[in-house]
């Protein structure tokens, strides 16, 4: 009997055994890795699908705007001055009623720059509502990009008379809030979705990349549009004081 040969055979078997164990754990490890990669890919696919859905919604919105005709369904009103303050109402006319009237009153009282995109349709003016962070009408962007202080006037729901103030220019926003309150207007805590803090929001696309977004309740806008202009005039004075005393 050749012991040496046996030992060699055992050594070979032992080596084979370890190689096999090693290989099988390598296969297991690769399997787990693939599973992880699959999970990551699935997540990425879900995100991509969400993005596609979002872009489709945006396209639908833009399409309804493209179908609209300038000067028939909407019009753009502009007055450029040498002021470094700009007031915009991008949901003006019949989109958010009363916002054009306030923006115009505020701008003309102070000789500020004025821009208003106005819905003129007899119904369904909301089809012309482009969200503030998507609003990229050339003239509006150009005016705002040259503006030092920018105010964006909007309308929100609410039968009571109140205002929400947002935007990235928190200093001016606070001054306006104080001034409005002093003049007897109610300023409520702004809900997150109306805070206007996105850098893409047109109000924050001025020189300093920060402006003030003013959301006015339907109740207060109805008051602005009534024959008695006391409320509108007092609101204009309150905001003017805050802006001009900066
Ligand atoms: Zn609006």
TrEMBL record:
InterPro entries in the cross-refs: Gamma_PGA_hydro, Gamma_PGA_hydro_sf
Keywords: Coiled coil
Stored Gene3D superfamilies: Poly-gamma-glutamate hydrolase, zinc-binding motif (3.40.630.100)
Superkingdom of the organism of origin: Bacteria
Annotated coiled-coil segments of the chain: 31-72
Pfam families: Gamma_PGA_hydro (PF05908)
Name recorded for this polypeptide: Phage-related replication protein
Organism (species): Pelotomaculum schinkii
